[in-house]
Each structure stands twice: as C-alpha cells, then as structure tokens.
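Let's practice the habit of predicting before peeking. Look at the sequence and jot down your guess about where helices and strands might fall. Then scroll down.
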Amino acid sequence: MPEGDTVHHVADVLRAVLADKPLVRIEAPRVAGRLPVAGTVVESVDAHGKHLLVGLGDGSVLRVHLRMSGSWHVYRPGERWRRPTRSARLVLEVADAVAVCFSAPVVELHRPRGSPGRGLGIEHLGPDLCAAEPDLDRALDRLDCDGDPGRRAADVLVDQRVASGVGNVYASEVLWACGVHPGTPVGSLDRRSRRRLFETAHVLLRANLGGGPRATVPGGLAVYGRAGRPCPRCGAPVRRARQGEQARSTYWCPVCQPEPGPAGS
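Done guessing? Here is the structure:
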C-alpha cells in the first residue's frame, strides 16, 4: 500500500497537469451518482494521509484510495495506455493530458457541505504527518483517548485514526530512528517519547515528498526490507517478523531497539 509520501507526490504530479483546467472527459464506471459534466474545472488536487482528493468546480470531490492494487498513470491524449482499459477506475482528461487511475478499490464521489473535510469519508483520520505543520498534540490526544496503554508502538504508528500517512515502511524506520522496539507498549512511553515518534515520522515523510528512491538514512532505508543485513548504526543483523492483527512485516535492530521487559520490571 502506498504510504503518505507517495500519495502526496502523486497529488503534486496530478495537480501540475489537471489543476485549473476544464475536463474534456470524465469516466468512473463504478462510481455511484451523477458524474460532473465535461467542461467542469478541476479546482484542486490534494492528499490527506493515504487519500487523494480531487475537487471539482461543481462542488463535488472525488476521493481515491489506492490500497494495495491501485496506481495512477498520466498520458498524452491519444497515447496508448500501459494497463488494460478494463482496469481503469477513474479517467480525468483535459486538453493536454489524461490521468488514469487503475485498479483502485476506492473511488467515490462526494458532495460535501459544511466544514472542510466533512462528508468526504476522511473524518476519522488523524492529522496528516505529510503536512507542513501537523497538529501533533491532536495526534497525542487521539492516542490518549484510545484507552489501551498495551497497544504496540508499531500498531499505533500505522493507525490512521491517530495520525495519517505512516505505513509499514515508515513504522519500522521511525521506531529504529527513535530506538524503540516495535512491541513496546505505548503506555510505557511518556508523552515526550510518544511525541518524538510522530515528530520523526513527520520529518521522514516530508523528506521524501519529492519522489524517487525513498531514503531515511544515507543510501536508503535503515532496517525495512533488510532482514539479516547489518544495522547501519551498530552492525547487528536486522530482524523481521510478522506482527499485529494484520501480520504486518516489521523490521528492527535487536541491539539498538531492545525488547521491553515484563510489565512492572
């Protein structure tokens, strides 16, 4: 599943080719409701966490979540697509470009009213850690309201209801950077340590918004995808395990991130 930095980069690319231009064609074969007509202007292309939002001049908003299978392509008008037409879930064509979203499981049309974000299906999300100045205090307050101090730090980081944008890659990289074992109960960390996790995630995500190979340390990633290879900090072999309800792949250094002791020890 693309993480927040990737979705924000996609939004930047789409904004550059679509924003402030009238649609020549819009197709969304699985979307319920009447689609905007040709001539409707694309007013905005934004991202919140892992959700991409296309705002249109008639007041509607298209929300796309790529999950594991989706991808966006940009073509010139008339250029042959690199994926089958049957896989297209959303087609947005302007005079000089065609943006096609393939195989995304979530493409929805919303007509929001009221305060920003309401009615878009993103009300449950925590602050976007890819934003320039995310509200980290709100993320910590959401975590406190969760009421389960025994939750693993790795699970909290990928919980989009607490703060949005972090996936498996950044969860492992953030915990390594902060020297926290993935299985550490979040309740055993003081507020300053919990805030540091979100601050670090924010810094790492922002550093990778430009696209290209993802890097959290010089040369690439510190631990994610590097099981059995030396930790860049201490040289110990990186470990990997599937953990949590969704059996996510988690990577860590057993020396830099020692396993927490029994409660009360």
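How did you do? The mean pLDDT is 93.
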